[in-house]
Amino acid sequence: MKKMKRFQAIFFDWDGTAVVSRTVPAEDVVDAMRPLLEQGVRLCIISGTTYENIASGKLHVFFDEKQQKNLFLGLARGAVNYHFEEGRPVPFGVQSQDISQILRIHGAAYAVHRRLLEQYGLPTDIVFSRPGYCKIDLLVAHTRVDRMFLQPNEIARLRNLLVEHGIPGGLHGLTELACEIALECTGERLYATADAKYSELGCHTKRDNVAAVWQELQCHGKLEASEVCIWGDEFLEVDSGVWGSDAAMLVPELGKASCFDVSDTDGIRPKRVRRLGGGPETFLSFLRAQANG
Predict the structure, then answer these.
(1) Hey, which residues does 273 pair with through a beta bridge?
(2) Which H or E run includes 127?
(3) In sequence order, what are the residues at sequence separation of 6 or more whose Cβ sits closer than 8 angstroms to the Cβ of residue 179?
(4) Distance between CA atoms of 288 and 69, rounded to whole angstroms?
(5) For the chain, what is the radius of gyration of the CA atoms?
(6) Per CATH, domain 9-95+206-291 is 3.30.565.10
(7) Which residues in the chain are classed under CATH 3.40.50.1000?
(8) 3-state helix, strand, coil in the chain (%, to 5)
(9) Is the pTM of this model over 0.85?
(10) CATH entry 2.60.40 includes domain 99-202
(11) How much is the pLDDT for 144?
């Protein structure tokens, strides 16, 4: 990798970008993060998962309080963000959801599941336990084991499955259908995203995490978007008009940020994203180089 300029803030995905699996020890990535945090570089983890799946919910114990002041997390597909105070994660920029709103999202997800089964004969599973959204498993016969990110064969597998079941418009048509059903059920607009295996339906996306974290960073010292970089492994266009979850990090506020993809999967990416490949090792090498820069 060619030497890059020094960045003052780094936004990055966790699964597939920082770690190859959430079950592997986190020492490699935290060792690469620590000197940057010590130097005052803001590190911002943006992930669809929840805190207990980031270094087994113990990320904060790897860093002292000085380092924690430069660590931020935007998690659960826009549902929660954290900074750190007195050694503990503290939520910020979050709109709490009451049980009635959560149940409306659950009802919408079930309605999507039912429509796909009744009208198209497509079985799906639903994960209801995520804060603010539901995961709809479209590839129920396919398991990712411990690699909770887009796998190379999933896009083709899903496209074939949708054709077999006669679902019009491919994955784009399916996400549009999910939004229409959600509007019918809840009377409000929900957002449907997809990474091939899973479609996610909820009130927010990673876009909301990035916007909230970026606003929070401005409270800790002025930053320019050109001083920021964004790293992920799911920028690919999964289907026509449907982009991977990391593409949601490309918010207008960070239009001048540098963007990098560590995925080795071929496909179309947003124009501003530079494909590097190499998986998490590429990202860790970048962090180490920045610390030594």
Answers:
(1) 259
(2) strand 125-127
(3) 189, 190, 191, 192
(4) 20
(5) 19
(6) no
(7) 9-95+206-291
(8) 40, 20, 40
(9) yes
(10) no
(11) 60
